[in-house]
Amino acid sequence: MNTKRKEILAVYEQGPEAVVTLVTTLYDIIAEQQKIIELQAARITELEERVKKLEEQLKKNSRNSSKPPSTDVFINEKPKTKSRRKKSGKKPGGQKDHPGTTLRMVDVPDEVIIHKVHKCSNCERSLEDIEVKDHEKRQVFDIPPIKLQVTEHRAEIKSCPHCGCKNKATFSEKVKQPTQYGLRLASLAVYLHDYQLLPYDRSCELLADVCGCEISPATLARAEKTCFEKLEDFEQQIKNFLIESPVINCDETGMRIEGKRQWLHVASTNKMTCYYPHQKRGSDAMNAMGILPNFNGTVVHDFWKSYYKYDCDHSICNAHLLRELTSVSENDDQLWSKAMNILLIDVKKSVDQIREMSGCMKPERIKEFEDWYGQIIHIGIEENPQLQAKSKNDILRFMHDLKVPFENNLAERDVRMMKVQQKISGTFRSMQGALIFSRVRSYISTVKKNQVPVMDAIRNAIAGMPFIPTIV
């Protein structure tokens, strides 16, 4: 301290100019230090935001975000599930008077085996000539031995006795080769690959082990390609039906094609499914798919921004929204998110009850829910002034139009098995392969939604007579 005082006095004794120089130098040093402090403060703020985001990522799981359950990581122990459902008070298991699925006897069995009584179990007298009074029946349900059935087609050849011309009968259009597989086997191969998601080699292995036929992957691929070509009109008809539908569900998911990440898009209802692969995720793909550009109803989606480029009504998936609200409640401890969570669930319960009675919600009840919604949004914006509220109409549309579902589960279920396909097979080798798979899968999904026997439907498609649903 004394040294600094002596230095300052020494400068003072040198005169005013020396003091001015010293003070100016000090100002410059302070200014430089202030700049460094401001830069450090900005960096600290940046790092704090980064740490906050990373902590939020660590806290996110399948319950409070859109992450799939397979990505959940539990360091110490699995967290307890917090279900939104309230306890019903019922005991676990089947409820009283609930119809079971017990295997029931048939009236006319395919085969009857008689177990005879030869002698009395008491006195051992012969009972061979005694009349049978009754039978106790037991039935065994099993699969018959599976083997290929070979049908030989013979075209008659006759020579005309008058002119000597040699005449041969014409084979059916379905019989084109000296030896070939039939439509049933081709249908089964397509079903195994495109619905049960078995790779070509494993499908061929299963057919060899179970049916005893040495079918090659190339033969299976040809059957699949034939089915694809015969379904061209079906695909266009399904797109037309979806365009005319009052409500459709849409979603998209990543798909690896040619070793690159591309996208699979889906548009569906409870009766129809249309898949479409594309290099992009946004509106370019949606335009190429050809449904949303011509659609005038309500599209249900997970609020991906590309959907809002289309001039139709929109409905946000509230299941996604509930998970996001749970994340805000748990990670940011904000009360408005809990209130909004409760509101959406209460509205859903009211809508579900009204659907059961085939009615519509009363205007005063709608106003009550909307007022409640507005109050919660007001509180939320006060806590988060930097954010903007999403459209109330898109969130509560299911309350005004009972044809609109609460969530986008339908489309999510339709794309879920496609993720399984990617885990099994990894990638499509070409875009054409992805297009073939998507169209055939669209057909099988539509068939099953309409409860049509799937094997018959595939066989009819290969034969050029695909199933076409009807709009009710």
UniProtKB/TrEMBL annotation:
Transposase IS66 central domain location: 180-434
Signal peptide stretch: none
Bias type Basic residues, positions: 81-90
Domain DUF6444: 34-102
Residue ranges, annotated region (Disordered): 57-104
Coiled coil: none
Domain Transposase IS66 zinc-finger binding, first and last residues per copy: 119-164
InterPro entries the UniProt entry points to: DUF6444, Transposase-related, Transposase_IS66_central, Znf_dom_IS66
Name the record gives this protein: Transposase
UniProt source species: Methanococcoides burtonii (strain DSM 6242 / NBRC 107633 / OCM 468 / ACE-M)
